Amino acid sequence: MKRILIALLAVLMMAPAWADEGMWLPVLIGQRIKDMRAKGFKLKAEDVYSVNKACLKDAVVLFGSGCTGELVSGEGLLFTNHHCGYSQIQRHSSVEHDYLKDGFWAMSRDQELPNRGLTVSFLEYMQDVTDAVLKGYSEGMTERQRDSVIKVNSQGLVAEAVKEGKGLRANVEALFYGNQYFLFVFRTFRDVRLVGAPPSSIGKFGGDTDNWMWPRHTGDFSIFRIYADKDNNPADYSEDNVPYQPKKFFKISRKGVKEGDFTFVYGCPGSTKEYVTSDEVEYTGNVSDPKKIALRTKRLDIMKKYMAQSQAVRIQYSSKAANVSNAWKKWQGEEKGIRRMKTVDKKKEYQERFKQWAKGTRYDGLVERLEALYAKRNPYFLAYEYYNETVRSIELLQIASGMLNVLKNKKAKDAAVEAFFKDYYQPIDEEIFVAMMKAFDDEMPDEFKPDYFKQMLKQYGSVEAWRKDLFSKSMFTDKEKVLALTKEDSEQIKKDPAYVLYEAFYQWYFKELRPVINDVNSQIRLAYRDYMKGQMEFEPQKQFYPDANLTLRIAYGNVKGYSPADGIYYSPVSTLKGIIEKDNPDIFDYNIPQTLRDIYAEGGHDAQPVCFLATNHTTGGNSGSPVINADGNLVGINFDRVWEGTMSDIVYDPSVCRNISLDIRYLLFNIEHIGHAAYLFDEMVFAD
Ligand code: ARG
Ligand code: GLU
Asked: Among 154, 393, 623, 648, which one carries the catalytic annotation?
């Protein structure tokens, strides 16, 4: 017994369970600041989050709909990632001005490029509104009644919070599966202009080959500026707008980082599920990830085959392939990580202890209930995931199904059609059609195949024959025909075989899958509300952080290397020397601009830092987040994680979970040597 106790104690002491894990709510910084300071942070709680005085939170924005950005000057200058500004850079690019390829640098304010639809949002404040949201709710109400109480109360809170107007918007978010509710109030700016971006051969250096990997050498940044009206309030784009004067902006540190240094990422992580049961993890790691990976491998292989044969096709499909491959690669790391961590077994073992503890309490039977709900949901959910990854990945069906929506507006329609065909290569689409439909046929159980699908296979005898007929009869392979469509043609569109196919699958999803999935999911959410509360009571000493939901969070840790496999150790800093080592004009992902080669050849730049690793707990949405040092100054921009650690959305492993950041000094290097835009330094403040 004593031996067991000692062993247990040793384990408890050895495993700093909460070291570096966690995405904490800024408003609760008071609970973290002691630990942060113990780890090296020098600022005070109110320097990080305060409603009454300007603080670091006022220099962080939600950029677009899924990235983070940070203010770096008193005149609205903002940094984010290249991959976050990618679609804006692309939209301004043409054959004459290929800003993606060559980079873009405004040499004066009037050259900055406006971006319709792009917004950035500052968090004004966040507030626990649990009591107000649940006012009028009583135990025993149905879930439906509870939802409507919440809805009405939330609407009231939101209306009150935004009544000043001036770009305010607000929403009430459930945290901990609805055990807590928070009001988030933002100010959203709508005139955000592109200031600078490096050529893709720097901003995307390493491409998909290096994505999610270390050693990394990507100059993943772009620069924007926020504009406001003359009173410093949000406004639509206007020539009369002036640079926004933020309450706070980051000073830039040129001191750099070294192993062990404190780092703090302030940003908007999108989604995690740290408190789920073994069933959810098992589904993700053993079913969903491997199946989706296999389907995407097929698609990527087809794209790559044709991309290797033709430069034109490579250009057409590089962005599409990058999108497909991003999650594909992440899932591979996640699946392996879950297995390596034995997360399913560990969760099962935890659940057993929870069950014992829960006997006779209101939490009794919860784990079993979730198990039953997952058993019911999973086959339907898998069918839905197959539908997404197969039918919905076929480009012909995408254009056919989207046509009715744009038909009324000829200009918008023609632009969409031009954009589609500019990047459409039919042989790829046909081959993907065959591969995906075959996979659907082979891998879906019969009861999860739409009748239409079975009928078609019977009628044609093979997917091949079906493909031939579909692609020769559909008008959507013919750009001229699609351009000629007018608003009178909706009936004709509805008869097109591509449209019919898409619609048949959609109706099947809508009628057969969606109702079951929605119903079970709402029961699952409800069960998790209790299970979450139960876990908090079961482990009263543990510090829980709410799952990510694209609201502002704090993650802190330190600069640190890791060992990805036996016999290998990765040191945490990469340099320009490594870019030159990878440089190869014959490999697209590693072909750097000649200017960079020339600068390097001048000598003296070997040690120019490029990227670094740290232990901050981040996820998708944290791209573009400021990486802050112990003094509160900007040392980097977060842009990725290492793939051995991507299971951190479910389970965090301090030994391999690392975020990857751009060293701010490489950004400065690019402004100076690649963009020749050193005038931008004048408005920045350098701390050291
Ligand atoms: N892995 C990073 C993220 O999840 C970067 C993605 C963009 N880069 C790429 N090569 N696809 O967003
Ligand atoms: N690249 C990701 C993003 O766009 C961050 C990588 C991750 O941590 O998932 O947010």
From this structure: 623
> In this predicted model, what pLDDT tens digit does every residue of 236-282 receive, in sequence order?
999 999 999 999 999 999 999 999 999 999 999 999 999 999 999 99
Q: Is 623 in the pocket of ligand 1 (CB under 6 A)?
A: yes
Q: Do the Cβ atoms of 360 and 437 come closer than 8 Å?
A: no
As a whole number of angstroms, the distance between CA 510 and CA 503 comes to 10
Q: Is the CB of 191 under 6 A from ligand 2?
A: no
Q: Which atom of ligand 2 is nearest to the CA of 67?
A: 10
Confidence of residue 19 (pLDDT cuts 50, 70, 90): low
Query: What pTM was computed for the model?
Result: 0.93
Give me ligand 2 centre to Cα 98, in Å.
Answer: 26
Distance 594 CA to ligand 2 centre (A): 29
Quote the pLDDT of residue 140.
86
- Is 272 a pocket residue for ligand 2 (Cβ < 6 Å)? no
Give the distance (Å) from ligand 1 centre to CA of residue 305. 22
Is position 617 annotated as part of the catalytic site? no
CB proximity list for 469: less than 8 A, separation 6 or greater: 460, 497
- Mean of pLDDT values over 382-405: 97
Among all bound ligands, the one having the nearest atom to the CA of 658 is 2
Tell me, rounded to whole angstroms, the distance of Cα 540 from its chain centroid: 32
Residues 6+ apart with CB under 8 A from 138: none
Short-list 595, 577, 598, 611, CA closest to 674: 595
Q: What are phi and psi of 630, to 5 degrees?
A: -60, -25
* Alpha carbon distance 556, 647 (integer Å): 18
Cα(70)–Cα(227) distance, integer angstroms:
14
Token pair for residue 95? 């054959």
83 is catalytic: yes
> What pLDDT shows up at residue 669?
98
Q: What does the alpha-carbon distance between residue 355 and residue 374 come to, in Å, rounded to a whole number?
A: 18
| SS3 call for 624 | coil
pLDDT over threshold 70, residue 446: yes
Ligand 1 touching residue 208 (CB < 6 A) = yes
